[in-house]
Amino acid sequence: MLYSETDTYQTNRIKFTSFFNEIDPNQIRKELQAGLFAENRWISSKFFYDDLGSNFFEDITELEEYYPTRTEKSILNRIAAEKFGKFRNIDIVEFGSGDSGKISILFSNIHPENLSSIRYLPVDVSDLALNKSAEELRDKFEGVTIECLHADFLTQQRLIPHERKRYFCFFGSTIGNLEESSAKEFLHELNASMLPGDRLLIGFDLIKDHHILHAAYNDKLGVTADFNKNILNVVNGYLSCNFQMDDFDHLAFYNKDMARIEMHLVANRDVIINSILFEEPLNFRKGEHIHTENSHKYSLSKIREFAMETGFKVCEIYTDDKNWFALSEFEK
Fold first, then answer.
1. Which helix (H) or strand (E) holds 95?
2. Of the CATH numbers 3.40.50.150, 3.40.640.10, 1.20.1440.230, 3.30.499.10, which one belongs to the domain with range 8-18+62-209+297-331?
């Protein structure tokens, strides 16, 4: 994730545009330093997704313990033919697009003669994930036009084309990584940018037994731990500092009162972090935490509340047979 890069190029049926040049790298450094020097230290989860982090997350989605991806796909497979079969002359916008697995289900159910009328607009902070997914989709679905937007969808929604009807997809319960106020602000701003008839299909991970949740973020192979620790390498790149992954342990647990999984990095010894950008060293005592991610879990009533409070109408809420996950369709 290199915010200083800017590039636009076009290959066979794929256009790639980076808008990261609009984001001041100094603001990124200030955000990181503010979090690291705070009383309760934190790093935004958006910094997980450099190239290595994106690969780690793709591996996570295939783990036995990590139910959200396969559960969400099972819902998509069940509803796709009826929901997407007649799509034509529409832009499909996917936030945090990542790999192509879920959107492929959607495209597989659009009548082939209509694919040439579809424009796909994936929006993601990872250029690696965008390029890989776009190439897979281009090779699999003849006729679909693909325009990759290398951007932060939380702050750069205005850059999404709006010449015709749009169908927004926000899979993976990524909305759950945001604090409630930020999630509502994002949905409210999206609603304001949508045209009458535009719809949003959004994934919510539902509240369930805490043992299932704990296992999903503490896998036996340690892939989630590697993913969590890799954020320190990203910070090193931005701040020219000397974090070592071996100095920190992965911690993930379910906070019942907040209905969320929390991920932290915990110093396993006293650590001093230096950087030419720091006015003073950053000191960690053994046992101190860096909070790296929240993953909020929802009830169906909370989903309806989110819609109502951000100006949306709930069209449908689709769940799996265990009620572990929900795909909700909102309309402006």
1. strand 90-95
2. 3.40.50.150
